[in-house]
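cache lookup: miss for this entity combination. No prior model stored, computing from scratch. Input as submitted by user K.M.:
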Amino acid sequence: MWNRRTRHVSGKLCASILLLGCMFAVSAAEVTPQRLNQAAKEPHNWLTYYGTYNAWRYSELDQIDRANVSKLTPVWTFQTGEIDGGLQSSPIVVDGVMYITGAWNRVFAINAVTGEELWHYYHPRTEEIPGLYGTWNRGVAVGHGLVFMGTLDNKIVALDSKSGREVWQVEIENAKQCGCNITGAPLLVKDKIITGVTGGDSAHRGYISAFDAKTGRHAWRFWTIPAPGEPGNDTWKGDSWRFGGGSSWITGSYDPDLDILYWGVGNPAADFYGESRKGDNLYTDSIVALDPDTGELKWHYQEVPYDVWDWDAAYEIVLLDLDYRGEKRKLLVNPNKGGYTWVLDRTNGEFIKAWPLADNIDWISGIDEDGKLIGRKEPKVGETMKMCPSIGGGRSWNHGAYSPKTGWFYSTGIEWCQNVISRPEEPREGMTYFGGEFTLAEPDDGEPGGHLSAYDPITGERHWRIRHKYPLLASQLATAGDLLFTGDATGKAFALDTETGKELWSFRTGSGIRSSPMTYAVNGKQYVAIPSGWGSALAGLITQLWPEAKDFPSGATLFVFALPE
Amino acid sequence: MMVLRSIITLALAAGALAAQTTVDLKNPAFIQRGADLFARNCATGYCHGSEGRAARGPDLRNRDWDPRALYKSIHGGMPGTTMPPWNNILPDEDIWAAMAYIISLGPGNLTSSMITIGGSSARREALTGKAKHGRDLFFDLNNQKRCAVCHRLGGQGTAVGPDLSVTASSKSADELMHDILNPSVLIAQGFGHVVVTTASGETIAGVKKAETGERIQVYDAEAIPPPLRTFYKDQIYKVENRLASSMPARYDSVYSKTDLEAIVAYLKSGNF
């Protein structure tokens, strides 16, 4: 399954690296925990899924800036060869070598200067993958000389970073039985590789897992739903805890100083029908703060108790140290699928604030000063109700970015609604477990569509907003060049001025952008990588409101841009 | 334009034909039954969408269907895609009901709607009592030491140790119980215990999965779930075969006697 093309990697690059010296490049294969902890000090690299453990998706690189970005030109492209599911990945770059995944668990190591493939690994296809969660993959983790990927058949695979040879793999649960698998990037913390799991819309009990990075041996599992006898099990009626969802499908964050791992937990199942699981349903829709060595719960905060809308708290958890009411606070910011963004004290889970990312939100009328939901509007059995946003979310999973230069958080939002009906449903292990149905609907006031905005991360005060006809489903990348890179459903990659939102550059990639752009530098030259390729559940779902989107071409091409010589 | 013969007789893939029955694809009650099945199994959120409006799966409305092709896609799934085979999930009659509903979303150009099908024998009978309890234990995802972590049965589980679908039928209940409690007395062919010592001094003991001239793959049986380790020949110091099973002894400390009897009853039920 692996194939090695060339092994020359960074010897020559090292000799001429201007930016931040050779001391990192000489140990090209060895990404140590210390390097990961201090990834921000190596802006020429992008060492973790979000670039850094704090999930800022920000780079200090500033060679490409407002003044010259209009000259940005493609320098190479790379095809993964598998367009089913589009291209959702975020590349990782270590000392001139890029690692990127494609759909159906393809992994490539690429010379980040030339685009030449160094090796690839294609995970064997199996008939046993749960189709509900798609064929895509969002990226790898690197460290200890290995490249780690979660798979569609619910395994973690570790590959040798130099050769692509398989070193170990472990099946976490049989994917066919559990109706769950892995599409998110794993996170390496110290000597453990940590992964979430899908399955939140299946009759499944979720968890977060950790394995010894070198051997694949099980280290710990944090069940996102407590068993009988454990604190929180009494928030589930009867046996509903057994099949209550609680997925962990998006990569978490880590604070090395506090030594806390933060992970967002998804919705309870059945999604729209809650009578059989009446209660708060811990730890669904919660942020859990874990000891990364043991998986022990340090604290939790539940954003949406007794969720009957599918409002995951699974999206990125952005770690920020900011002044709040005259005090320096260690905070986290978590956009919830229901359209509100939660701000918590990340030392103890104290509620600070919640603010909306979208205009059309009516499943609650608001959130009070203590974080309590006000005016809940719940789906009903036998009665179709219109509510906003749609199950697709006030925002999709695609991640926002934080720039310490502006102090603003950049995020997309979607204006859309749905007609939803709740329906009693018996769980069938590993099978879909929605407890109802929905169809997309337009908002009562205004057009459906997407937008991208700059916010104060604590108050949600908006500094600018640009609107798009279609939902924006790509992540943002902020840079010290005062630029914000992202892309749209029609395949346009573009860069905005972080201060004004003004578009300064664009490039037509030919297929919609559903990925996480990133930036890196080799030999002192800055590159911007934007994976292009339309696909995913939402890409299909939006055809209910925008029928023309049915004809949007899929693809799977990585575009890499740089300034001309 | 598809044309349907007045009556189609379908042989079931699973063999063992049950009594034949005829269904009417235009019958409103049959279509309604299909609509309910579609809502719970096919519309489900991110697949085909409510009333087949499309999500990740294609829009199913306003299409002319060739019932034979449609049946094949649903019954056997679409290999290489995320459309699963439904033959082990829904009885044949339910698949036809869902089809009646899907066909009703389009012009429904059928020259005849009467279909004779082979009954519902593709579905296994539901387990009851002790054997059902045994099955629940064998596959219990809440128990990280469940049997299925290392054994496949009826197409489920992980193939670290032998697939028990065959073993179970060739042994008596007493023999099975004896094997579980004394795994090293009789070792299944091809599942011997190997110990790999690497050039760097690491030792891994477990089940050899595969060996080529280039590499050896071994399940590390001292961990649960067992990771599959791959070693290239230049990484190996030595490989030793041992006359023992990789299955942990003393499974009577994982399961009670009653539970073990239930698991054996399930293995002997032949109903996988």
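stored under new cache key. The CA atoms of residues 517 and 530 of chain A lie 4 Å apart.
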